């Protein structure tokens, strides 16, 4: 899943055309996102025996130049979301969509610092971490 995309990406960089560059940049964006989501959803995917064959077919569809699946998904879905949240056009993201670690695994520390996003010296957004659960409160009392 990685050898051909690496080779094709190097070929795309060295070619004078821009179309193949977009295909392989879109592939790496989507493959990174798929890998991230797979890491987060691993406990669920473990129980789905069909996941790995589906992933193999999906990644093959993204990679194969006959289908140009990565460019298709990027043009149809990803670009629209990036423009909606103000990420495209060389601008920095103005919004934090999710802080995965604090959303999935609440910290047992009641005085945890908020997560803040800054642009230069200006604070754009701060998010408070989730409140400790009852189990985390009991753990804090024992420490």
Plain-language structure description:
It comes from Colocasia esculenta. It is found in: Membrane. By secondary structure, the chain is mainly alpha-helical. The chain folds into two domains: 3-84, no CATH class; 100-142, no CATH class. 57% of the residues lie in helices and 8% in strands. It has seven helices and two strands. The protein has helices spanning 3-14, 19-40, 42-45, 51-63, 69-84, 100-104, 134-142; strands spanning 115-119, 122-127. A two-stranded antiparallel sheet has the order 1-2. Helix 1 (3-14) runs antiparallel to helix 2 and helix 2 crosses helix 5 (69-84). The longest helix is centred in the first third of the chain and has 22 residues, at 19-40. Residues 93-114 have low confidence and may be disordered.
Write the layout of secondary structure elements.
Elements: H1 3-14, H2 19-40, H3 42-45, H4 51-63, H5 69-84, H6 100-104, E1 115-119, E2 122-127, H7 134-142
Antiparallel strand pairs: 1-2
Helix pairs in contact: 1-2, 2-5
| Number of helical segments with 4 or more residues | 7
Share in helix? 55-70%
Which structural class do you get from the secondary structure elements? mainly alpha
User: How would you spell out the order of helices and strands?
Assistant: HHHHHHEEH
Q: Kindly, what is the distance between the CA atoms of the first and last residues, rounded to a whole number of angstroms? A: 46 Å
> Whole-number average pLDDT?
74
Q: How many discrete domains?
A: 2
Strand content: 5-15%
Q: What Rg do the Cα atoms give?
A: 20 Å
Largest sheet: 2 strands, antiparallel
The dominant shape is extended
Give the strand line-up of the largest sheet: 1-2
Q: What are the segments in which pLDDT stays under 50 over at least 5 consecutive residues?
A: 93-114
How many E strands? 2
Q: For this entry, what is the oligomeric state of its chains?
A: single chain
Keywords: Membrane, Transmembrane, Transmembrane helix
Organism: Colocasia esculenta (Wild taro)
InterPro entries: TB2_DP1_HVA22
Protein name: HVA22-like protein
